[in-house]
């Protein structure tokens, strides 16, 4: 919204003219100082005069080619002007200098989307979400990410990444929906089953989690302590022998830690094998 929309056309114009005159005088006195151009550009942006802002950002960048604020804000103004290719170039230059600046990926994703390149937009939204999940832009990024994926629904890789974002935010119901769609699109891909199983565990749907771990194992998945994870689900379901078998498989694979023995010891106790239970609890105490 422009200032004249808030105050009326005359008052808004007069305010901008007065402020710009003041800053312009500073620039006249120190023409090689990029700060003056940057300040004036900000006033132009506030008023909605993006072409004027771009002209001042050009001056800043000519004086200081590595100015991160000028590159980012010029990109935003180019986007407002509909010049998305130029915006993408500015965001790209910024990312080369400051690769972990999440807003640049978010904004570049919007420009890619405006250019009709959903694949690149999704990649940028993924990167923005990964870099700064606690930022104020995160929700906007995920919303745009979700919309882009919906517009490109047959891309299981993009959908899987969206599921990971929801999982990281502990939005397990949303994550399960996304992983389920990935499984539909690519049923022989092991990782979505494991990721969905993790979400099921967190909402205490242990039977569904165990089924997903089983499918991942059938497909050849052996990473990430998968037997122990399935064993814990069986333990919570009261299927103690199955749990013992999985904990034993984890131990046989050489990846146990103290909780593996603790859990197996508990299961042994539940089926009346006290001697085995005591041995496992002793081993757990040694490893802890």
What is the arithmetic mean of pLDDT? Answer: 88
Instruction: Give the CATH H-level superfamily of the domain at 1-99.
Output: Tetratricopeptide repeat domain
What's the order of the H and E elements?
A: HHHHHHHHHHHHHHHHH
Tally of separate helices: 17
Structure description:
The protein is an all-alpha fold and 288 residues long. The chain has a domain at 1-99: Serine Threonine Protein Phosphatase 5, Tetratricopeptide repeat (Alpha Horseshoe). Helix content is 79%, strand content 0%. It has 17 helices and no strands. The protein has helices at 3-7, 9-29, 34-47, 50-63, 68-80, 84-97, 102-114, 118-131, 138-151, 156-168, 172-185, 190-202, 206-218, 226-237, 240-252, 258-270, 274-287. The chain starts with a helix and ends with a helix.
Nutshell version of this structure?
With 288 residues, the protein is mostly helical. The protein contains 17 helices and no strands.
């Amino acid at each position: 919204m422009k200032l004249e929309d808030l105050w009326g056309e005359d008052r808004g114009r007069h305010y901008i003219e007065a402020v710009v005159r003041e800053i312009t005088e500073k620039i006249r006195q120190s023409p090689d100082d990029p700060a003056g151009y940057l300040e004036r550009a900000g006033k132009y942006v506030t008023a909605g005069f993006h072409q004027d802002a771009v002209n001042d950002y050009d001056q800043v960048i000519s004086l200081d080619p590595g100015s991160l604020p000028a590159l980012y804000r010029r990109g935003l103004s180019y986007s407002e002007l509909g010049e998305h290719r130029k915006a993408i170039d500015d965001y790209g230059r910024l990312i080369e200098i400051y690769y972990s600046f999440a807003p640049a990926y978010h904004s570049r994703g919007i420009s890619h989307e405006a250019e009709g390149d959903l694949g690149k937009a999704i990649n940028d939204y993924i990167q923005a979400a990964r870099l700064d999940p606690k930022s104020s832009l995160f929700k906007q990024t995920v919303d745009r990410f979700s919309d882009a994926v919906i517009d490109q629904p047959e891309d299981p890789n993009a959908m899987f990444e969206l599921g990971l974002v929801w999982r990281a935010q502990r939005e397990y119901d949303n994550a399960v929906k996304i992983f389920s769609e990935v499984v539909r699109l690519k049923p022989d891909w092991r990782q979505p089953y494991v990721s969905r199983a993790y979400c099921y565990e967190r909402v205490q749907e242990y039977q569904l989690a165990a089924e997903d771990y089983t499918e991942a194992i059938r497909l050849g998945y052996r990473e990430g302590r998968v037997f122990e994870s399935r064993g814990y689900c069986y333990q919570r379901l009261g299927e103690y022998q199955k749990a013992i078998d999985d904990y034993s498989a984890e131990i046989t694979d050489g990846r146990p830690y103290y909780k593996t023995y603790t859990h197996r010891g508990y299961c042994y106790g539940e089926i009346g094998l006290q001697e085995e239970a005591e041995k496992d609890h002793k081993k757990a105490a040694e490893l802890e």
